[in-house]
Amino acid sequence: MYETWEQIEEACVKCQKCKLWKTRTNVVIGEGNRKANVMFIGEGPGADEDREGIPFVGKAGQLMNMAFEGLGFQREQVYIANIVKCRPPGNRNPEEDEVIACLDYLRSQVLLIKPKIIVLLGSIALKSILGKEYGITASRGRWIEKKQILYMPTFHPAALLRDESKKIDFWRDLKEVREKMEKICNNKE
Ligand code: URA
Ligand code: SF4
Questions:
Q1: For residue 77, what are the contacts with CB-CB under 8 A and spacing of at least 6?
Q2: Three-state secondary structure call for residue 170
Q3: Closest to 106 (Cα-Cα) out of 56, 40, 169, 152
Q4: What is the rounded distance in angstroms from the CA atom of residue 71 to the CA atom of residue 15?
Q5: Best mutation site among 82, 87, 98 for ligand 2, i.e. most ligand atoms within 8 A of its Cβ?
Q6: What's the mean per-residue pLDDT of the chain?
Q7: Which CATH code is given to the segment(s) 5-185?
Q8: What confidence tier does 185 reach under pLDDT thresholds 50, 70, 90?
Q9: Max Cα separation, the chain?
Q10: 94 DSSP 8-state letter
Q11: How confident is the model at residue 189 (pLDDT cuts 50, 70, 90)?
């Protein structure tokens, strides 16, 4: 595990712990408030994120930004990261060995940020963090508490681009997060 942000950054930019390093342009470590009460975890960088080194800047990210705006979240207020920090080629799902190799970084980030709420975006994030027994369809929209963190699984924003009917549930889940945040979070700063 990594104890400081400097250690995480130093290790990530030169990381070769899984094969994804070979095809990446940039490592996408994460972005946002390092004292955030709410953290969002996606799957892995896409082409735009790989180019810019920042999570959720492509189409899925724009959709998420729109939801954030509508609900009164600010991107600067939350922290956003992914299960794997390098882009899986052709936007395939990250493979199990890649997830296992990368997860120490994300776990270290969670320990440093100490969020009260973690939003799991899509099946890969849900299964990688909480376990394979969870499925997104059954779990989305329900709080799961583990080790004093409240997890909210919801759809991945890219899934909403493929299936518009999922938008309403995604919106509902983020609204629930927003309300919970107001209830339980005093400003950490
Ligand atoms: N999809 C993800 O899961 N993460 C990103 O950063 C962008 C798209
Ligand atoms: Fe390292 Fe993670 Fe990138 Fe794999 S995806 S090379 S483990 S930073």
A1: 32, 33, 36, 38
A2: helix
A3: 40
A4: 36
A5: 98
A6: 96
A7: 3.40.470.10
A8: confident
A9: 44
A10: P
A11: very low
Look-up of token digits 């980030």: 109
Characterize the bridge pairing of strands 38-42 and 79-82: parallel
User: Is residue 84 within 6 Å of ligand 2 at its C-beta?
Assistant: yes
Instruction: Judge if the beta carbon of residue 19 lies within 6 A of ligand 2.
Output: no
Answer yes or no: is the C-beta of 157 below 6 A from any ligand 1 atom. Answer: no
Q: How far apart are CA 53 and CA 156, in angstroms?
A: 20
Q: How many CB atoms lie within 10 A of CB 137?
A: 9
pLDDT in tens, 167-182: 999 999 999 999 999 9
pLDDT number for residue 162: 96
Q: Is the CB of 20 under 6 A from ligand 2?
A: yes
Mutate to test the pocket of ligand 1, among 54, 78, 82, 85 (most ligand atoms within 8 A of CB): 82
Q: Where are the domains of the chain?
A: 5-185
Which percentage of the chain shows pLDDT scores above 70? 98
Q: Grade residue 187 by pLDDT with cuts at 50, 70 and 90.
A: low
Whether the CB of 85 sits within 6 Å of ligand 2: yes
Closest CA to 93 of 63, 136, 36, 139: 136
Paired tokens of 115: 């969020």
Per-residue pLDDT at 186 exceeds 80: no
